[in-house]
Backbone:
């Protein structure tokens, strides 16, 4: 996510550079990210950094019109301050992925959608 709260493709590409199948994955990641940030805003919890990586395996070795996704994997990398925020963010990610993000729900009708969540709290815990 950039400083304006918008997600952008990695590796220097622009949205206009994505083919339609890549654009579908980008849109799903953007939907999930916006949903998670909205849920966190409601809880007044801050996310220090937020990255979503999404990839899909196509049914053909090269991109063709009849290619379809056979699996989709979403990786959420999030940095927050406290353990409490870490728990709240984990819940928000699961809610977005399982219930509130319509594009992720739609992709689940096309192929299995797996997720991996990595949330790091940076404040030291005192004993």
Residues:
């Amino acid at each position: 996510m950039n400083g304006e709260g918008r997600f952008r493709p990695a590796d220097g590409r622009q949205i206009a550079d994505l083919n339609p199948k890549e654009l579908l994955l980008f849109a799903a990641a953007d939907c999930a990210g916006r949903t998670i940030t909205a849920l966190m805003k409601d809880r007044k919890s801050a996310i220090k950094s937020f990255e979503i990586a999404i990839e899909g395996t196509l049914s053909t070795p090269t991109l063709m019109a009849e290619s379809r996704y056979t699996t989709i994997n979403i990786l959420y990398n999030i940095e927050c301050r406290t353990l409490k925020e870490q728990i709240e963010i984990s819940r928000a990610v699961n809610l977005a992925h399982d219930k509130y993000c319509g594009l992720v729900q739609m992709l689940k009708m096309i192929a299995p959608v797996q997720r991996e969540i990595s949330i790091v709290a940076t404040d030291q815990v005192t004993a």
